[in-house]
């Protein structure tokens, strides 16, 4: 279990964003298609017929303004005001420890387009400082020191 965070971080570096390699949306859509089966002797025909029916209903629902359809139904917990709904649970607040705060800060910095030139500049500085380091170690050093370097660089 101690090696799990290390392997997950390496997998994230190699694989990229989770939405491009996660099977959950595909499996969920396959469940929807499997629910269209009415005739178990010909499941492909049932799925095709059910999919066609769903597409036709969605197409027709765009032109029916005064009829409540699946796509025009009001959202749950609708209060009638401009807000579309409200939460139905207890309001909880929490505080981040230092490690979680640094991780959140690093995530926001690395996924902001205005910071991208600074990320490239920091990588160039690290390449000059450590010329014999491989790419993985360079990325690790970048993730560990970028937020500190960025804070000092912006304050100057």
Structural features, described:
By secondary structure, the protein is mainly alpha-helical. The chain has 2 domains: 21-77, no CATH class; 98-155, no CATH class. It has 6 helices and no strands. The radius of gyration is 25 Å and the shape is elongated. The two termini are 42 Å apart.
Helix count, DSSP H or I runs of 4 or more residues: 6
Can you tell me the overall shape?
Answer: elongated
* Structural domain tally: 2
- Binned, the helix content reads 55-70%
Low-confidence stretches: none
What Rg, in angstroms, do the CA atoms define? 25 Å
Strand content: under 5%
Look at the helices and sheets and give the structural class.
mainly alpha
DSSP, total strands = 0
Mean pLDDT: 82
Straight-line N-to-C gap: 42 Å
Largest beta-sheet characterization: none
Order of helices and strands: HHHHHH
Keywords:
single chain; 156 residues; mainly alpha; 2 domains; 6 helices; 0% strand
Can you give me a brief rundown of this structure?
The protein folds into two domains: 21-77, no CATH class; 98-155, no CATH class. It contains six helices and no strands.
List the helices and strands and how they pair.
Layout: H1 4-15, H2 24-35, H3 43-61, H4 98-110, H5 116-129, H6 135-155
Helix pairs in contact: 5-6
């Amino acid at each position: 279990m101690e090696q799990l965070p290390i392997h997950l971080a390496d997998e994230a570096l190699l694989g990229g964003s989770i939405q491009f390699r996660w099977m959950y949306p595909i499996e969920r859509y396959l469940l929807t298609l499997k629910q269209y089966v009415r005739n178990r002797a010909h499941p492909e025909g049932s799925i095709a017929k059910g999919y066609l029916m769903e597409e036709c209903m969605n197409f027709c629902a765009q032109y029916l303004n005064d009829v409540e359809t699946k796509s025009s139904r009001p959202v749950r917990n609708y209060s009638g005001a401009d807000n579309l709904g409200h939460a139905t649970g207890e309001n909880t607040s929490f505080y981040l420890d230092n490690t979680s705060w640094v991780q959140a800060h690093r995530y926001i910095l690395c996924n902001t387009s205005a910071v991208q030139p600074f990320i490239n500049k920091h990588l160039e500085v690290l390449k000059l400082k450590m010329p014999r380091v491989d790419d993985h170690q360079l990325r690790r050093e970048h993730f560990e020191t970028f937020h500190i370097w960025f804070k000092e660089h912006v304050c100057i």
